[in-house]
Design brief:
CATH superfamily: NAD(P)-binding Rossmann-like Domain
Organism: Isoalcanivorax pacificus W11-5
CATH topology: Rossmann fold
InterPro entries: KR_dom, NAD(P)-bd_dom_sf, Peroxisomal_Beta-Oxidation, Sc_DH/Rdtase_CS, SDR_fam
Strand order of the largest sheet: 4-5-6-7-8
Family: Belongs to the short-chain dehydrogenases/reductases (SDR) family.
Domain Ketoreductase: 1-194
Strand content: 5-15%
Protein name: Short-chain dehydrogenase
Number of helices: 10
Number of domains: 1
Radius of gyration: 20 Å
C-alpha cells in the first residue's frame, strides 16, 4: 500500500513494487500540492499502468488525514487482496511560510497529512501485522526536519516527528517481526517545485535537484518492504545514485559539576566547555552541498 502514489515518488514506488510482484493499493486523493481539490484520476492512472504491465493493483482515494478514512485504505487492501504486508507512508502537502507569518491553518493542514496521516495509516495496519507476525513500514521523512530549512516549520516539525514515530513503531512491534524505517528522499517533484530559486546559489541547488528523479527512491523503498530485508529502525537518505545512512541523536559531549549547577556556573563553565561541539545553524542544502552523481 503506497499513499500519495498518484504521481512523483509514490507513483514510482508503486510501479516498482508491482514490477517485483507485489499487489499494490495505489492511494491518492488527487489533491493539489496545497491539499485543495479531489480527483480520482491520478490513482487510477497508476493502477492502469500497473495492470497494463501485467501487475495487480487497485485504486484508493481515501484521505490519510482522518482515522476512519485511513482505515478504509487498509480495508481496500484486505478486501481486494486478503492481506496487507507493506505500507509506504508517502502522502504529503506543502504550505510553506516563514514561521512568524504562518497561520494556524497552514500549520495544522501539514501536520495532519504528514504526521497524523502517517500515524493513522500505520495504526490501522498494526493489528493485521501483529496477527500475522510480519509486515513493514516505510515512512518518508525529510532533511528539512532532520537538518533544517527556511520557511518550513510545519513541514519540518512533521517530518522530524515521522522519524520518531518510525523508531517507536520499530521498538514496539519488533517482537511481532514488524519493521519500520524512514527514507529522506531527494527528488524533483511537486513537493520540491516550491524550493526557492531566487539567488544564484538557490538556482544552482534547484538544478541539482532536477537531476534527481523520483524513480531513484523506489529501489530502497521496495527493498525495505521485502521479507529479504531485516533492517529495522533506520533512517536513510537517497540522493540520485547515493544511499546514505543518516545519524540519529546521541550524546556528543558532557560536563559535570559535583555540587550541581547554578545559572552563573552554567554560563561560566558549562556553555564554554560545550561550545566547541555546538552545531552550526545549517539547512539541508548546506550539509548536502556536493553535486549528485
Amino acid at each position: 500500500m503506497v499513499t500519495g502514489a498518484g504521481g512523483g515518488i509514490g507513483r514510482d514506488i508503486a510501479l516498482s513494487a508491482a514490477a517485483q510482484g507485489a499487489k499494490v493499493v495505489v492511494n491518492d486523493i488527487g489533491a493539489s500540492l496545497s491539499g485543495d481539490g479531489l480527483d480520482a484520476g491520478p490513482a487510477q492512472q497508476v493502477v492502469d499502468e500497473i495492470r497494463a504491465a501485467g501487475g495487480e493493483a487497485v485504486a484508493s482515494t481515501d484521505s490519510v488525514s482522518e482515522p476512519h478514512t485511513a482505515q478504509q485504505i487498509v480495508t481496500a487492501a484486505l478486501d481486494t487482496f486478503g492481506r496487507i504486508d507493506g505500507i509506504v507512508n508517502n502522502a504529503g502537502i506543502l504550505r510553506d511560510r516563514f514561521f512568524h507569518k504562518m497561520s494556524d491553518q497552514e500549520w495544522d493542514a501539514v501536520i495532519r497529512v504528514h504526521l497524523y496521516g502517517g500515524y493513522y495509516v500505520s495504526r490501522a495496519a498494526a493489528p493485521h501485522f501483529k496477527a500475522q507476525e510480519s509486515g513493514a513500514y516505510v515512512h518518508m521523512t525529510s532533511t528539512s526536519g532532520l537538518i533544517g530549512n527556511y520557511g518550513q516549520a510545519n513541514y519540518s516539525a512533521a517530518k522530524l516527528g515521522i522519524a520518531a514515530l518510525s523508531k517507536s513503531i520499530a521498538l514496539d512491534m519488533q517482537k511481532f517481526n514488524v519493521r519500520s524505517n524512514c527514507i529522506a528522499p531527494f527528488a524533483w517533484s511537486r513537493m520540491t517545485g516550491s524550493v526557492p530559486a531566487e539567488t544564484p546559489e538557490e538556482k544552482q541547488r534547484v538544478e541539482r535537484f532536477k537531476q534527481m528523479t523520483p524513480a531513484k527512491i523506489a529501489p530502497l523503498a521496495v527493498t525495505l518492504m521485502s521479507d529479504a530485508s531485516k533492517v529495522n529502525g533506520q533512517i536513510f537518505a537517497v540522493r540520485n545514485n547515493e544511499i546514505i545512512l543518516m545519524s540519529q541523536p546521541r550524546p556528543v559531549r558532557s560536563v559535570h559539576r559535583s555540587e550541581g549547577w547554578t545559572p552563573e556556573t552554567v554560563l561560566e563553565h558549562a556553555l564554554p566547555a560545550l561550545e566547541a561541539s555546538f552545531f552550526d545553524l545549517e539547512r539541508s542544502g548546506d550539509v548536502f552541498c556536493w553535486d549528485p552523481v
